[in-house]
Amino acid sequence: MAAPAQISQDELEELREAFAKIDVDSHGHIGTDELNDLFKAANLPLPGYRVREIIQDLTKTGDLHDGKVTFNEFANVVHGLKSTEVAKTFKKAINKKEGIYAVAGTSEQSSSGTQHSYSEEEKVAFVNDDTIVTWVNDTLTQAGKGTISGFKDGSIATSMPVLDLIDAIQPGSIRYDLIKVEDLTEEEKLNNAKYAISMARKIGARVYALPEDLVEVKPKMVMTVFACLMARGMKRV
């Protein structure tokens, strides 16, 4: 099975990097028991039951080879999970229920018919990049703050978009008198980033990125920061 043509070259390279982290012996495949770690390495954490369902599906379709998953098979699974239609369906199906979002439709039940609920972090894992950027910009605009063009936006190096989003989610939480805004040195950018990561965690966002990821504007890691803040922000709804 070939990797899906719809996945961009940049995303394919990111997936290869994640795959290589798990396939440490460079065999070109991983065991099904390592699939959960692989999804985490690819910044796509999934509930355990969902990983088991994927393994069952791969087994039924004959895409497993002696219980091993190849890179192309993994890429196809990721493409299916992050497709635009899945993201739209998932987004429309969100209903708040005691701090957890129950999911309606096909995502609601496992193959065994068991109903599941997703935490905000699990839910955001299914949402595509454009949806996250749209949510971030809508939230920033509503708070009267500047927006971003995407996860490669140069302003992210200053951490201001992240700090503004935190303040939009929890008004008054950011002390802007502690932040250097213009003509920043590399050290000042790093200080802003450290403050941003610290405050994101303080308001309850499960951010695992490093300050350097913001300063260097690493798109994939920047995406995880905004995704975690989106998960935190949606708890206000």
From TrEMBL:
One of its GO terms (molecular function) is actin filament binding. Residues 126-234 form the Calponin-homology (CH) domain. GO terms for cellular component: actin filament; actin filament bundle; cytoplasm. SUPFAM superfamilies: Calponin-homology domain, CH-domain, EF-hand. The keyword DNA repair does not apply. The keyword Repeat applies. Keywords: Actin-binding, Calcium, Metal-binding, Repeat. Residues 10-45 form the EF-hand domain. Signal peptide: none annotated. Pfam families: CH, EF-hand_7. InterPro entries: CH_dom, CH_dom_sf, EF-hand-dom_pair, EF_hand_dom, Fimbrin/Plastin. GO terms for biological process: actin filament bundle assembly; actin filament network formation. This is Lymphocyte cytosolic protein 1 (L-plastin). The gene is LCP1.
